[in-house]
Amino acid sequence: MGLPPSQPFRGDLSLLLGAREVTAYLARGLTRPVFFATLQVFLLVLLRMILRRKWAAVVAFVGLLVLAQSLDAQSDWVVVVSLLLRISIGASIMIRFGLLALVAMGTGDLLHMMLLTTDTSLWYAGRSWFGVLVIVALAIYAFRISLAGRPVIANELLGEEAG
Prior knowledge:
Elements: H1 19-51, H2 54-70, H3 77-97, H4 99-107, H5 110-113, H6 125-147, H7 155-158
């Protein structure tokens, strides 16, 4: 396509510096999706108020985000099409399921940037698994909170009588 080959993805190398950097990365990574999801909802509501049609606001929203992100890097048509698909899926998730689903989708990218390994003898394995354990602990905590004291499996399914 006329462009030089891209470098392989190697993650965020600052995570190799220690637990302090991993903790800071996780703190940034858990607050950033909340900010950007709120910003996207605000932009969509603003476009809806200006354009007065839901479909026009969604098309303008997807177009603006694709344009903003494709100007950032060397973009060929493959990058633009993948951005269009990813942003369209994100917009449909935001419209259908709301802000919380968009935040959860953003926090899923945390593991993508970390340097993960299954070889526990490597010197950075502890730092790698620390981040994974924090994310899993937050997911378990969120699951327990969402149950609101109810059992995970309903008593009716287990054959037990209530009361």
